[in-house]
Structure formats: structure tokens, C-alpha cells
Design brief:
The chain is α+β, with helices and mostly antiparallel strands. The protein has one domain. The chain contains 10 helices and 4 strands; from the N terminus they run H-H-H-H-H-H-E-E-H-H-H-H-E-E. Strands 1-2-4-3 form a 4-stranded antiparallel sheet. Strand 1 (146-152) and strand 2 (156-163) form a beta hairpin.
Length: 224
């Protein structure tokens, strides 16, 4: 079994943003269809969501400021089209819960295992984690996000997301309540960090999606 399917442990990690986002979107729709099979939904509802995603992505093409934005737009709009299709049938709260599970859970174990394998194998897990973050900032998030590096030294790396592409898209489509779903995907890799073993801790006390002014991603070495 490959415990590092994303190649995080490589010397020159560059995320496959198109491939990763495609896997997330496909797993999202598959999970929804499976988890809601007993809810007496129209047979063609999920195929219709996929068609709507193609149409809405084309309509929002001006948001594709770079390749990461193209991939991130498709992931975000997958939530939008599913929300529009399911909310009238299931209600707001049940729909959001279903979307959260479908977006976060399918690849959760794989993401956590890959992150853990990378950290366990690294000579300096803190430095390895910072390198992965910086690679993702450039290649997976890109110009659709604005970042502020408030601390960047050998002991701490504090990155603040001051503009979130996901949130901007969801606000534009009148669905800001879905932003926390995107935030919760991070719990998959956060859960792989063992401060006692890896020598650093991670803290994110809020996010833009939860009402914060920014999303603080803060890594700090632990003492000793």
C-alpha cells in the first residue's frame, strides 16, 4: 500500500492540482450518491449535478486567473451545484451536513496517511511541513488567494490567508455558509501532526469561513 500517494516526501514536491481536485470532485459526487440513496431523490439528480457543474464552471471562467484557480473553482462550484439541487429537497442543515461528509471523508484517510508518512520520514518534520505549505501556496492555491507571512524563521512559520478564493466564489453564489466545508478538509492533514513525535504544533484558531478576518495557519516548533 502506498502511504504517500501525493508524493509529499519528494525533494521537489509540486502538487498535481488538476489531478487532486478531479479526485476530490469525483469522490464528492460518488459519496453523495451513496450516502443519500435512501432519500427518495430523482434518479437523474446526481448526473444533473455533474452537468450543472460543467455549465457553471464555464459561466465563471473569468475567475480562472491561473491553473490553480481553475481547479479550485471546479471544487468550489461542485458544492454550489449540489447545494442548489439538494437544499430544496432535504433542507439547509441536512444538506450542509451531507456536503461536509462527502467533501471531507472520502480522501480523509489517504490525506492523513500521506502527511503522516512524510512527517515520519523527514529528518526535520517542521521544515518538511513548511516546504509543503509553501509549495501548496504557489502551486495549489495561486493568485486566487492572498497570503501574509507574518513569521518565517527556523522556529515558526505563521501564514495568514487574508483573501480566500473559495469564500469569494461561495459569496458570489450566495452560499457563504458552505465555506466551513472547505475549511474542514484541512482536518485531514492536521490530524497527522503529532507534536510529541514531530517536534512542532499547528494552530488555526479561526477562518474567514467561520467569521474571522483571516485564516491563521501557524506552525511552531515545540520546546525540547
Amino acid at each position: 500500500m502506498n502511504t504517500d500517494p501525493f508524493g509529499l516526501a519528494g525533494d521537489e514536491y509540486v502538487p498535481d492540482v488538476a489531478g487532486d481536485s478531479a479526485a476530490i470532485v469525483d469522490a464528492f459526487f460518488d459519496h453523495l450518491a451513496g450516502s443519500l440513496r435512501d432519500d427518495d431523490l430523482p434518479d437523474d439528480l446526481f448526473a444533473g449535478m455533474r452537468r450543472s457543474l460543467i455549465e457553471l464552471t464555464a459561466a465563471d471562467a473569468e475567475r480562472c486567473v491561473d491553473e490553480p484557480a481553475r481547479a479550485n473553482l471546479r471544487m468550489t462550484l461542485a458544492l454550489v451545484v449540489a447545494y442548489r439541487a439538494l437544499r430544496p429537497r432535504l433542507g439547509r442543515d441536512v444538506t450542509i451536513a451531507a456536503l461536509r461528509a462527502a467533501f471531507v471523508e472520502p480522501l480523509g484517510d489517504v490525506v492523513q496517511a500521506g502527511t503522516k508518512a512524510m512527517l515520519d520520514a523527514a529528518d526535520d518534520p517542521f521544515a518538511a511541513m513548511v516546504a509543503v505549505s509553501k509549495a501548496r501556496e504557489k502551486y495549489a492555491f495561486g493568485a486566487g488567494f492572498d497570503f501574509a507571512r507574518t513569521v518565517d524563521d527556523d522556529e515558526s512559520y505563521h501564514l495568514d490567508v487574508v483573501r480566500c478564493f473559495y469564500h469569494d466564489v461561495l459569496v458570489a453564489h450566495s452560499a457563504p455558509e458552505l465555506t466551513p466545508v472547505m475549511c474542514e478538509f484541512d482536518a485531514n492533514w492536521i490530524g497527522a501532526i503529532d507534536p510529541a513525535k514531530h517536534g512542532f504544533r499547528f494552530e488555526r484558531v479561526t477562518t474567514i469561513g467561520l467569521g474571522g478576518t483571516h485564516c491563521p495557519f501557524h506552525w511552531d516548533r515545540t520546546e525540547g
